[in-house]
Amino acid sequence: MNSEIKMSVSTMTRSKDSKAVYVLFEDGAKSAEFALPECRKVSNNGFSDEEIAQLTDYIQNEQDSIYDVARKINPMKAFLGEIK
């Protein structure tokens, strides 16, 4: 895996009766999306099984910090390009 993997975190969203956060990893043409709190893989385009296992371990170990990031996102400011 490249050391330059980009990670994007969604705002808190509603999934059925609970809150969810989506995490997208991108490495060149490869991408994988996961849903928290289940750490469920939503999609994978190009990552190997070993890489998916590493990304899953990462989001399991970093859930608290990922939730902190998601809570701080202001969707309107992001939409308007005010977040750098």
Task: Give a written overview of the molecule.
There is one protein chain. A hairpin with a 3-residue loop joins strand 4 (30-36) and strand 5 (40-45). The protein contains three helices and five strands. The chain is of the alpha+beta class. Strands 1, 2, 3, 4 and 5 form a five-stranded antiparallel sheet that branches. The two termini are 26 Å apart. The model has no long low-confidence stretch (mean pLDDT 88).
Short description:
With 84 residues, this protein is α+β, with helices and mostly antiparallel strands. It has helices at 49-61, 63-72, 75-79; strands at residues 6-9, 13-15, 18-27, 30-36, 40-45. The protein has one domain (6-79).
